[in-house]
Design a protein that fits this description.
- The protein is an alpha/beta fold.
- 52% of the residues lie in helices and 17% in strands.
- A 7-stranded mixed sheet has the order 6-7-5-8-9-11-10, sandwiched between helices.
- Strand 10 and strand 11 form a beta hairpin.
- Helix 5 runs antiparallel to helix 7.
- It is globular, with a radius of gyration of 24 Å.
């Protein structure tokens, strides 16, 4: 599918990085970006987002290059999307729709598919309600009496019923996950979740640690379904490691909500391994974006171990940095080559031993208090 990518610079520092990300996202969705058109504005145009002059320029690019889709690096209102499609005479999608489309392609588990469909329908519901307003305004008339007026209500009801059913399914899956988590908790397993920006190398790191064979590829959102494996660390015993979905700037709110069950694996972890692409020029911005999402889902209080991955691409050597209380704070490694992986195993074992000691002290304190009261 031949595409034109459109980005508007509103004066934000991350405009270039965001546009490069759109390029990766569009390729991940299966599009072939032929043309990239940018402009500067202080505010979006109410009707066409980019204004009439720039939309004419996009229309010329569409005609000259025989393009069949326009992908905007922003969230479009239903009216803007509809006006642009009329003007450009091709399909127009925004950043949210693009990410939802990639998620729909990548979801494999039953839970992942339910989550994606719920997110898509919630996004579609806003488009549907506004999409039929031309029928509502006409209030009958030739060809629009009867069913024409009730079509919107019918679609709303069907959509509402489907969303309600999917939410019930999600609640059931949520309870099943809670049961699994409680049984793990009874076994006192130290739990670790891999988090990080999409394409930071989490799945490659997960495979290197656990030999799990999880799908890993140099593309955005290669992992959507949480995978958990046990890892034996000698004196520290067994720990449970989970690979989770990657984060991205301006992650659609529907996805944060719909992926609650998946992200709860992160919320209940004892340790977060925050994987960073050391070769990315915007790595510090990506760290900030991940921490923002962690805050949104209530996981910002969990201890973090920063892992700077892909050091082979950044010409760095394997090493570690200590934080306060002599705890390992940051590790530089390459999951691809294996350099520095021993440092990571040592760091996880250190955190697991400290947590085990803390749990033991807490248990002894409870026993001591019980003895006093008895």
């Amino acid at each position: 599918m031949r595409a034109v990518l459109v980005g508007v610079d509103f004066g934000k520092e991350d405009f270039t990085a965001s546009l490069e990300e759109l390029l990766l996202l569009s390729r991940s969705a299966g599009a072939d970006p032929i043309s990239i058109i940018t402009c500067k504005r202080s505010n979006p145009d109410a009707a066409l987002f980019v204004g009439s002059g720039k939309s004419d320029e996009i229309a010329h690019a569409v005609a000259d290059n025989q393009l069949n889709i326009a992908i905007f690096n922003h969230v479009l209102s239903p009216a803007q999307q509809r006006n642009l499609e009329r003007h450009l005479k091709i399909r127009v999608i925004d950043r949210t729709s693009l990410i939802l489309d990639i998620f729909a392609q990548r979801a494999h588990s039953h839970e992942g598919k339910v989550q994606v469909e719920l997110a898509q329908l919630q996004h579609l519901s806003t488009r549907l309600i506004r999409g039929w307003t031309h029928l509502e305004r006409q209030k009958g008339g030739i060809g629009l009496r009867g069913p024409g007026e009730t079509q919107l209500e019918t679609d709303r009801r069907l959509l509402g019923d489907r969303v309600k059913m999917l939410k019930a399914k999600m609640e059931k899956l949520h309870k099943q996950r809670e049961t699994q988590r409680r049984s793990r908790g009874r076994g006192n397993a130290f739990s670790v979740s891999l988090v990080g920006y999409t394409n930071a190398g989490k799945s490659t790191l997960f495979n290197a640690l656990t030999k799990a064979g999880a799908y890993a590829a140099d593309q955005l959102f290669a992992t959507l379904d949480t995978t958990s494996r046990r890892l034996y660390l000698g004196d520290a015993g067994s720990v449970v490691i989970s690979d989770t979905v990657g984060f991205i700037r301006e992650l659609p709110p529907q996805l944060v909500a719909a992926f609650r069950a998946t992200l709860e694996e992160t919320i209940h972890a004892d340790l977060l391994i925050h994987v960073v692409d050391a070769s990315s020029p915007v790595r510090l911005d990506q760290i900030q974006q991940v921490n923002q999402v962690l805050k949104e889902i209530g996981a910002d209080h969990i201890p973090q171990l920063l892992v700077w991955n892909k050091i082979d691409l950044a010409s760095l050597e394997p090493s570690l940095e200590m934080g306060e209380y002599d705890k390992i704070h940051r590790i530089f490694l390459s999951a691809h080559s294996g350099a520095g992986m021993d440092l990571l195993r040592h760091a996880i074992a250190q955190h697991a031993n400290l947590e085990a000691a803390k749990r033991n002290n807490d248990h002894q304190s409870v026993e001591l208090n019980d003895a006093r009261f008895n």
